[in-house]
Design brief:
The protein is mostly helical. The protein is built from 11 helices and no strands.
Length: 217
């Protein structure tokens, strides 16, 4: 657990900073987070549209199709007793998501790599420091994509359980993982939904127990 956490911290070390990191899109997300936090601190909940000095024109992007970033920021703002400015809060969101992504991957890999926690830890570290995970947030300011980091392992672990174990936990993990993915970033969620659906249908047909699937769910 310590190795995974240290690797996740190292991977996003530039965000352990209270100043601005990134370019145009990063600034836009910071402005939208500022609007969300301003409304939340004023007692507006749920937040549907921008209506503070940061979004006086009624901006809805990315709140309407990827609200996970802003709502996670709202939760983190409450946990930090409103002690962080919006830019620092944005950086804190990404830092915490990296940790959650590494720990989620490790927890999901432990049942698969039975008796080999070091293998699970190594794969989790590769997951959180891989170019496919860091490139969107480091070079493209694609924070919505990065927010899916903790939920993808849950959906994939659910697919594995559906195929290998066949218990009720598999569909539950798929549902939780896909729900989180849809809240964080719909394009990534669409691909995972298609993959999970194909695997689930294949597993149900191959087990010849498709009539019992509603009871399993």
């Amino acid at each position: 657990w310590l190795a995974v956490g240290a690797s996740a911290t190292f991977a996003v070390l530039p965000f352990y900073f209270s100043g601005a990191v990134g370019s145009g899109d990063a600034h836009w997300y910071t402005v939208m987070l500022s609007d969300f936090i301003t409304q939340l601190r004023a007692g507006v909940f749920p937040v549907w549209v921008g209506q503070s000095q940061y979004a006086f024109n009624g901006a809805v992007s990315p709140l309407r199709y990827a609200p996970g970033f802003q709502y996670f920021g709202g939760c983190l703002d409450l946990l930090t007793a409103r002690g962080l400015e919006p830019t620092a809060l944005k950086n804190a969101i990404l830092a915490v998501v990296a940790l959650l992504g590494g720990y989620s991957a490790y927890a999901c890999l432990r049942p698969i790599a039975k008796g080999a926690p070091c293998v699970a830890a190594a794969l989790s570290i590769l997951w959180v420091i891989g170019p496919g995970q860091l490139a969107p947030v480091m070079t493209g300011d694609q924070y919505m994509t990065f927010m899916t980091l903790p939920f993808a392992p849950l959906a994939l672990n659910g697919c594995w359980r559906v195929c290998q174990v066949g218990d009720r936990k598999g569909p539950l993990l798929i549902a939780i993982g896909l729900a989180g993915l849809w809240i964080c970033h719909s394009p990534v969620a669409l691909w995972f939904t298609l993959i999970a659906a194909c695997i689930y249908v294949f597993a149900a047909v191959s087990r010849r127990s498709w009539k019992q699937e509603p009871a399993m769910i």
